[in-house]
Amino acid sequence: MDMKKMENVKKLSDAVEFVERARRAGGSVLSHCWWGMNRSVTLIVAYLMKYGSGMGINEATALVAETRPQANPYGEVLNLYKKNYLDAKVGK
């Protein structure tokens, strides 16, 4: 597997945990990228997958698209995140 992709998935996991720590501390986080359709959406979809009542990629993307119609997260990164950070935890 491409190590760069796995580094990005690790960074995504770290960002998801950052958002959750901020939420639990009563804070908020702004997720934004240049067009607001790929990177920022990928983070929010990953967050919803982990902390949004077990949403899948499609369900979480559809929810984000309700307010951000141009939402187009990085599916390959989300699939790797699911496989390495969500599914791995369930099986253990």
From TrEMBL:
Q: Which Gene3D superfamilies does the entry link to?
A: Protein tyrosine phosphatase superfamily
Q: PROSITE patterns annotated for this entry? A: TYR_PHOSPHATASE_2
Recorded GO molecular functions are: protein tyrosine phosphatase activity
Q: Which UniProt keywords apply?
A: Hydrolase, Protein phosphatase
Return one Gene Ontology term, BP aspect: negative regulation of MAPK cascade
- Give all residue intervals belonging to the Tyrosine specific protein phosphatases domain: 10-69
The UniProt entry's sequence similarity note says: Belongs to the protein-tyrosine phosphatase family. Non-receptor class dual specificity subfamily.
Protein name (record): protein-tyrosine-phosphatase
